[in-house]
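Blackboard transcription, Thursday session:
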Amino acid sequence: MKSIILIALLVNISYTQDMLDVKCLSCHRQQQIPSAMIYRKYLLKYSTNRAIKSAIYHYIKNPKEKQSIMPKPFFDKFPRKKRMNTEDRELEILIDKYIDRFDIKKRLKLKKSTDKSTDI
Amino acid sequence: MLQSEKQSLIRFLIIYLTSTIFLFSIASWIFYTSSKKNILEKQQQSLKYEFQNILSTIRNLHQSNDKILYYPDSQEYKSAMFDLDKEYIFGSFDKDISYDYRDKEVLIYKEKVEPYYLGCAYLLLAKDIDYSDIFKLKKMVVFMLFIAILFFSILGYFLGKLFVAPMKGSIEKMNQFIQDTTHELNTPISTILTNIEMLDTFHPELSSIDEFSRIEIASRTLSRIYDDLSYLNLNHKYHREIVSVDMGEFLEQRVLYFQSIAKLKSIDIELKVEESITLEIDKNDAIRLVDNLLSNAIKYNKMAGKVIITLNQYALSVEDSGIGIANSELNLIKKRFHRANSSEGGFGIGLDIVNQVIHYYNFKLEIDSTQNMGTKIKVIW
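(Written on the board underneath:)
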């Protein structure tokens, strides 16, 4: 039973990851849109995942230049995004996956110095 | 140094030094607090400087494409990033900390930052307080306080000596006067007493004459005053010869001595003495002690009053039915030249002498008195 649940979970993860690649990142790659850089822009402005998610959601629902976090010259170089016909629930999952994939904070590590120890 | 001079000097020094130490302690405390604050502010400044360095590193990390982003960490400073919801993101502390992290041993600097590099909206920086400078400051303040106390003690001693100098002069003059007077009185008193004794021996019929009795009583009183004054003058240089004194026998002698004076006021002296009670005491001290107690009991008694002398193994008490002493006067009467009642003559040296004898032999003096009822003075050994 346990193995069935585990397999189902892995399949689900793999499916949503694939969904992100298929539904979002495939176009990004094709159009050479810097997805990681866009995430960092969001992070720089909104700080929390909750706020980033909300901002991306509103942009995808209404993809206008005014709603975007990217500066005007960005749209001169890259094509404007078309409105997506994705269900809300699915869209939220995709945004979560996007944030998870490009989350720069996950790459943070401590570089231990060799100085004497401290009490803090 | 005279006893009173010593007392005045000690009192002056106590007041002077207490107030000086108090003021200096307050000043030292203010100085210590403000200096400590400065030291901590200096350390806080270094924290602010480090804050900018860490912030700059975070900015670089945000733009970095490296696979691993090394967060700044040092042994001296610890930092942590919090997002806009004040949730912990990452930090160099040993464990995750909350935004409200506090520790009294640690200096903390926290500031909102914008834009939010790595999502960091608040950056917290902490550093162990360096107590070495504070400890140095403490040592310096204690040392300064010690030097100040030493300086003001020496200054106070000389100031005190300066203040009591006029008093010392007056007391010395008075003592010199008493010394001269007693010296001058010695010969005439001795002459009077010798001649009275001669008259008593060769003309026994004179004893029944009232005028002669009065002369005899007055001479004895004068002789006692002379003895008291001599005792006070010689007290410091006086060589005591401690012998075993049979107190019962001794008291009978002294009562006999005072009998004629008591008779003048029709005072009845009752002696309640337990037998074979001896005391290791100088004879002259015993005389001064008992004579002064008896003299006071007679002097401050009512006409046809009563004096009860009780002697037991532990104490001697002299109880009179006299005017009594007010409660407010009880603590003062043992001092020299103090008289609780000025209706009778005297110098106010009686109880001072009693007190001196009691102090010398480590006896204890208890005074129980009710105004217009009487006084009971108890010497406990």
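Lecturer's comment: Chain B is about 55% helix and 20% strand.
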